[in-house]
Amino acid sequence: MENLILAIETSCDETAASVVRNGNEILSNVVASQIESQKRFGGVVPEIASRHHVEQITIVIEEALAKANIVPSDLDAVAVTEGPGLVGALLIGINAAKAFAFAHGLPIIGVHHIAGHIYATALVEEMQFPLLALVVSGGHTELVYMKEHGSFEVIGETRDDAAGEAYDKVARVLNLPYPGGPHIDRMAHEAKRGVEFPRAWLEDSYDFSFSGLKSAVINYKHNLEQRGEKIVPEEIAKGFQDSVVEVLTTKTVRAAKDFGVKQVIVAGGVSANRGLRESLRKALEQEGIPFTAPPLNLCTDNAAMIAACAAYMYEAGVRSDLSMNGLPGKELKSWIGENDNLRQS
Amino acid sequence: MIWLGIETSNKPLSVSIVRDGQVLAEIVQNTNMTHSVTCMPAIEEVFRKANLTPVDIDAIAVSEGPGSYTGLRIGVTIAKTLAWTLRKPLAGVSSLKVLASNAELYKGIICALFDARRKNVYAAAYRGMNLETVIPEHHGSLEELLQQLKEYNDQILFVGMDVQKFKEDIQTVLGEQAKFAPSSLNLPRASKLIELAEKEPLPSLETIHSFVPKYYRLAEAEAKWLEQHQKEQS
Ligand SMILES: [Zn+2]
User: Fold this and answer.
1) Can you give A303-331 as a three-state secondary structure string?
2) Are residues B75 and B121 in the same domain?
3) Gcp-like domain: which residues (chain B) (predicted)?
């Protein structure tokens, strides 16, 4: 495979652009974060995110090209996150990508954000098929089975809150600053013991549920407050994280064995969580199943992962056109074996 | 001098290519399709009709606001990306002035307005061929705007797609003083946008990165946050 791709990602609150060669060599990976601004509101405000993207977009693309030391005529294609994500935010990246592609006569490729997260792995090592991906982020908790490149089958997903969403909500209950996930992870490691919280197993299914756990945390804290007892936030954090991690690990290992996969990968913002990485590593090692967790900067939202995914789509002949729209609820669909869908909707 | 003009500030869409004051190609449409789907194909089409390629243009003009936040961002994002990557100057023009320029031959005052919901409007008023500002672009209540306009001893022509919605309110306050533009003048034209941009000196290339829409309003969350913050400080 030989191609050079510029990718743009603006699905949430990071404005990102990257240049990747052959789907695995990162020439540049620029991310402008809005965390400082969004912190004021305790979460991502879509309108604010969109305004920041317009301010940053050309600066970020310029930096990505400059750091990669390439000019537009060196490129083979422009890739961009088509969805899912915040629609107003997606539109900035998409329209910038389309304008850039049009200006230089380049093809354009719309990439699914979760496929991008999964393909972050390709930037680290060659993906081994069949493969199982656990995708965990603020908006997603999914187990995705991949028979080969470009083939996706969602075998399990959350029935209510995404894991990252649960982290954010529990962080708010514990009065931790936004984003709360890293704080909970750190506190869980500092705690000597954890509060005993329930695990939602949803037997005979690879699906997840985190809303019951979230309520249990809220009730626990509320009961202590009512009785005037001392609250140890670290113990709550550890109890919560232990529950989330155990369910995610157990289901992932079970699915990996059931499907006989050659590799398990973890992807998405929550995969930066140390507790989750360690637990998955240990459990999969015991089963003798290879496990890959991309480095932290490739787990959180970035454009290199979008470029890596687009590299394989480019080879398969997948193209979008100038009427591409932002798809906030875009489904994860295979791009191989479905020739009718090759030209994306 | 070849200009590309992009106007997506509200529901209508217009893109145009103008060479030395002559319109080569123009698209004006008013459908329910999102600008995200229609704008780039429309730009591609005017280039094809004008038999030009992107590198042929010398400057880009875009409606900078006020208007729909999403609409503005789509036009501005496309315009600034093209301007930056083609290294061409980018000029922003008030979207209200673009609309008012449709009626620049009118003898009285021209008031352009967009609905901003809850009886609020984005509005401005101008006068004469050079569209001198009578009331600058702002966001405010329709009632206040009408009371302000009433003070002028002049006929007032209202232009804009949303004027129809407020016709009764306007007539109640202004009576015979109010005139209404024919519907063909209520759609903004990118060629008029370019005409207005050409009257100003070309901005330097250094201004492209920092070019953003003029929203005339803070995001709701930001306004609340500031309010909260000022309370805490006092
Ligand atoms: Zn993500």
Assistant:
1) CHHHHHHHHHHHHCCCCECCCCCCCCCCC
2) no
3) 25-225
